[in-house]
Amino acid sequence: MNYWLMKSEPDVFSIEDLRKKGVSGWDGVRNYQARNNLRAMKKGDLALFYHSSTDPSAIVGTMEIAREAYPDPSQFDRKSEYFDPGSKPEAPRWLQVDVRFIGKFSRPMSIDEAKRHPPLGEMILLHNTRLSIQPVRPAEWAFIKKYCE
């Protein structure tokens, strides 16, 4: 099993939105490194839900990968903000996965808080704040779960 961190702006899609839906597609990823991380995800992998571009940005809960990567339909929708005229149905450029809500943390962990914990010192989140989909090491996952639940 692998662990991931996935970022979303809460005014676009929040942990509460996922809780209400139960399962949702994670669309709109338009970064090649993040897309490659989506491609590497396996059904049953676990992910941290991170609220970005808010004050404070924070890890707020957990979810499970419910469906492995498949073409993101928004890339073909001319009305979508995620439309990509260079992507073709026969050779899609962008992917999404489906995620299933697991739980919301009773105590979110802000990025500033994460920086204060030595077990998280090498976490990608602290060194590449722009990457929206990133792997998480098992020890980092365990520390965050214990701290936040």
CATH class: Alpha Beta
* Widest β-sheet, arrangement of strands: 2-5-4-3-1-6
CATH superfamily placement: ph1033 like domains
Radius of gyration: 15 Å
Count helical runs: 5
Helix content: 10-25%
Instruction: Tell me the β content.
Output: 25-35%
Structural class: alpha+beta
Tell me which CATH architecture applies here: Roll
Number of strands: 6
Description:
With 149 residues, the protein is an alpha+beta fold. It has one domain: ph1033 like fold. 24% of the residues lie in helices and 34% in strands. It is built from 5 helices and 6 strands. The chain has helices spanning 15-21, 32-40, 111-115, 124-127, 138-148, and strands at 3-8, 23-26, 46-51, 58-71, 95-110, 133-136. The protein has a 6-stranded mixed beta sheet. Strand 3 (46-51) and strand 4 (58-71) form a beta hairpin. The radius of gyration is 15 Å and the shape is globular. The mean pLDDT is 97.
List the helices and strands and how they pair.
Layout: E1 3-8, H1 15-21, E2 23-26, H2 32-40, E3 46-51, E4 58-71, E5 95-110, H3 111-115, H4 124-127, E6 133-136, H5 138-148
Parallel strand pairs: 1-3
Antiparallel strand pairs: 1-6, 2-5, 3-4, 4-5
